[in-house]
């Protein structure tokens, strides 16, 4: 899917996005639980870059647990970034945030960040060099040794196991009250518009993008998450 079409899709989905996926929030919450100790060593006044922040779920979680952190939230969807801004205002931490409507490469340069998040974003770049370039841009904006927490859909799609896992994943979505239309779109997207790669290949892309110590710390169904460090 071309970037413009992807942005338009998320603009349309923004008003009901959190409601649509609410039934699968346990996966996100478990990932966040495991993420907290991995970020525990960051400074009390850390600056965190949130790439593809969407409606701001990770932003809210991190702002609640670390009241001294400041954030730059980036998303190319205007509707998503406005939903994120509204959520930050409702939660009372908007003063610790800056919101950038646009792609990461258009974000003005500034002092390096201590950490970054990039959840379920790079999978939409089906061209490998573009995916590497995204992570390289994030790495360039981090302190040497800065942390990146990232997640993507990942699987060995040619393996017999995927023929078991994918239908189970789609059934779970149905059990979580995701609409049939959204499930149909997801199944079609996995074949055409989402780069569902083997976990080892996603790790290799992170490495090629300038990260080391890339450790997978979470998996739930097709969702895998990594914590990595930018090279010194």
Automatic annotation (TrEMBL):
Chain segments annotated as transmembrane: none
Keyword terms, alphabetized: Methyltransferase, Transferase
One of the protein's GO biological processes: methylation
GO function terms (MF aspect): methyltransferase activity
InterPro entries membership: Methyltransf_25, SAM-dependent_MTases_sf
Keyword flag Transmembrane: no
Keyword flag Methyltransferase: yes
Domain Methyltransferase: residue ranges: 48-146
UniProt xrefs under Gene3D superfamilies: Vaccinia Virus protein VP39
Pfam families from the UniProt entry: Methyltransf_25 (PF13649)
Protein name, per record: Class I SAM-dependent methyltransferase
Source organism per UniProt: Luteimonas deserti
